[in-house]
């Protein structure tokens, strides 16, 4: 089938490359000249393991192309996916849908009859209705459908998630849209990947509900970790004890410095606003958002306390990991931002290293000494703090770390190390919930 992907950000580029790898003819369209130029040169604007090879393979095979020219891309399209950004709107936390609606308005006069317009962007309930209204207003004689197809991709594992999904949710209000999307995803259904069809509004809400539930699990285990520290329990034992219950499951029960990234922060806020608009307040989600915001800053205080809790002006902390999670260069709402700010507010200097996120971090965190490697960051610091669970931080030479630090203090906000293993090297070890 011929697929047009509007937007070459994280969702659009990964989805477009994977659809092309299924054998579809995919054209990715973007208004950003520099981004399209880079893609045409074979340069990938985001870090996602395996994406550069996947894009190159399908460009070479002639199934994947990139353009700035929307009128050139749309003729003959069976489906047009809208995969533009929906950031939190300044002031009220609602999802900013201006890019979605602008895309719908611009494409409407150019769409071929029979096309299915698919919202791939994360959008609140009712967005599909408005997209349909806009297109009908701009092209009253067009025969078309509007569907919802939310993405459930984890940054760092997006390609595998797309090709081996737990489920594919499609929100459709007519049989034609359902048939087209079933054909697009047919390579997955052959592998018995479940395709779940529901109403368009149901699919829109499913995306937000899923992210809010996962954020709730993270917030819950983080608060249990705090309680474990007070009562002398190990949160790892508690997490295992509840996670083996199949009704609960063990995923998203790893305590840490709080969630960040492109999805959970903005989606929980957008869901709260939707609940308020429909007079169905979501008190649990509201508590999760507040708890997570407070936790990020509290992790900075945890590091300060590990330094002795007194006058810390003039001391230096080595921050290992800046991105919100491993295997991405995404700094959006990363806990590292709040942690570094808390340290700096206490008069502490920060040296930092991240395997992939340094350039993005420089755009959002000032007055930090960015280093060439973990040991460079550790050299001369008064303490080390692990913020992101990169594999490269799991096997540090602890004797070398100790020799570089002024004081052997390791604050492990991801519980990558065993307290026993670290303390036998002469460290003061501070974990989470242990």
From TrEMBL:
Pathway: Nucleotide-sugar biosynthesis; UDP-alpha-D-glucuronate biosynthesis; UDP-alpha-D-glucuronate from UDP-alpha-D-glucose: step 1/1
Keyword Protease attached: no
Catalysed reaction equations from the record: UDP-alpha-D-glucose + 2 NAD(+) + H2O = UDP-alpha-D-glucuronate + 2 NADH + 3 H(+)
Pfam families: UDPG_MGDP_dh, UDPG_MGDP_dh_C, UDPG_MGDP_dh_N
Gene Ontology molecular function terms on file: NAD binding; UDP-glucose 6-dehydrogenase activity
Protein family per UniProt: Belongs to the UDP-glucose/GDP-mannose dehydrogenase family.
PANTHER family named in the record: UDP-GLUCOSE 6-DEHYDROGENASE TUAD
Name under which the protein is recorded: UDP-glucose 6-dehydrogenase
Organism (species): Aurantiacibacter gangjinensis
Source species taxonomy: Bacteria, Pseudomonadati, Pseudomonadota, Alphaproteobacteria, Sphingomonadales
């Amino acid at each position: 089938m011929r697929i047009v992907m509007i937007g070459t950000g994280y969702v659009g580029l990964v989805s477009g490359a994977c659809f092309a790898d299924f054998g579809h003819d995919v054209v990715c369209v973007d208004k950003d000249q520099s981004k399209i130029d880079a893609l045409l040169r074979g340069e990938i604007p985001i870090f996602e393991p395996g994406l550069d090879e996947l894009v190159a393979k399908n460009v070479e095979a002639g199934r994947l192309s990139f353009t700035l020219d929307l009128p050139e891309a749309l003729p003959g399209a069976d489906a047009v996916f809208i995969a533009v950004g929906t950031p939190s709107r300044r002031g009220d936390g609602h999802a900013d849908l201006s890019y979605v609606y602008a895309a719908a308005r611009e494409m409407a006069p150019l769409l071929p009859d029979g096309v299915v317009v698919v919202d791939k962007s994360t959008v609140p309930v009712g967005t599909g209705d408005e997209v349909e209204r806009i297109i009908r207003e701009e092209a009253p004689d067009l025969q078309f459908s509007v569907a919802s197809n939310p993405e459930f991709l984890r940054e760092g594992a997006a390609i595998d998630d797309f090709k081996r999904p737990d489920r594919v949710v499609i929100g459709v209000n007519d049989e034609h849209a359902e048939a087209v999307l079933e054909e697009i995803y047919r390579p997955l259904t052959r592998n018995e990947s479940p395709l779940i069809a529901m109403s368009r509004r149901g699919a829109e809400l499913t995306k937000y509900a899923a992210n809010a539930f996962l954020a709730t699990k993270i917030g819950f285990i983080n608060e249990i970790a705090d309680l474990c520290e007070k009562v002398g329990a190990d949160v790892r034992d508690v997490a295992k004890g509840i996670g083996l219950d199949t009704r609960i499951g063990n995923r998203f029960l790893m305590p840490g410095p709080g969630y960040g990234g492109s999805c959970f922060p903005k989606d929980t806020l957008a869901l709260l606003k939707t609940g308020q608009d429909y007079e169905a307040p979501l008190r649990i989600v509201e508590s999760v958002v507040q708890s997570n915001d407070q936790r990020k800053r509290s992790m900075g205080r945890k590091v300060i306390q590990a330094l002795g809790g007194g006058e810390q002006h003039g001391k230096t902390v080595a921050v290992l990991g800046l991105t919100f999670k491993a295997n991405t260069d995404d700094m959006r709402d990363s806990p590292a931002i709040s942690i570094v700010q808390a340290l700096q507010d206490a008069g502490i200097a920060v040296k930092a290293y991240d395997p992939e996120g340094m350039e993005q971090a420089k755009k959002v965190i000032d007055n930090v000494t960015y280093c060439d490697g973990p040991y460079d960051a550790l050299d001369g610091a008064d303490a080390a703090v692990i913020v992101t669970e990169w594999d490269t931080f799991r096997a540090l030479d602890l004797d070398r770390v100790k020799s570089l630090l002024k004081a052997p203090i390791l604050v492990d906000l991801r519980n990558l190390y065993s307290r026993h293993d670290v303390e036998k090297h002469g460290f003061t070890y501070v974990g989470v919930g242990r």
